[in-house]
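Throughout our pipeline, every protein is held as a single compact record rather than as scattered files. Nothing more is needed to write down the fold, since each code stands for a local backbone conformation. For reference, a complete record is included directly beneath this paragraph.
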Amino acid sequence: SQVFAAGELQNFPLQLRRLVDQDPGPIDVSAMARSALQPLAGLGQHYLDSTRPRTGHTPRFIDKLPLNFLYLGLIRKALPNAKLVCLRRDPMDVCLSNYRQLFASNFSYYRYNLDLLDCGRYYIEFDRLMRHWHDVMPGEVLDVHYEAVVTDTEPQVRALLQFCGLPFEKACLDFHEKSASVATPSAVQVRQKIYTSSMARWRRYGDAMQPLYDLLSAAGYY
């Protein structure tokens, strides 16, 4: 009841572009370097102010933009009170899920998902960056594993709430009963009770998944 699910907000990268005076489009390396020279507390406040029309009625909100993983270092500095959570899943299932999802075709950040092997390569680089964040910000990012959540829900929920400094509420286990609108790819799933049928989903596709499996195996995931 203390947290509003705000969805996948574009506010942080938008405010970051404004901070470094970059035109719309992917935030490049030079923009990230310029951001280090800027007052990041101001970036954090501009971000919060920009979300208030949507999130102002609750003390806390969730911004689950997938690309936030790119900016975790800046987010930690700009929003020191933010809780950083990364949902992890079997890499094969992650890549398959991305490949099956039709993202905005005019948004270059997501063009990797047009090819299954590119999804695998993207995952490898994502994981490498997440390991970096864990190294430079020990204890600041909580990894929550999908398979653990769907098979052992309540302990995982309690651990997440403890990390976030929030009390446990029974409603956390009854999320599927909420009537709030959802405008993200998970809109259907959040209306259902927790299920395990999506675990190891990639195995249903047989030999078609072998090249991806070989790629991820060579990278040490299997």
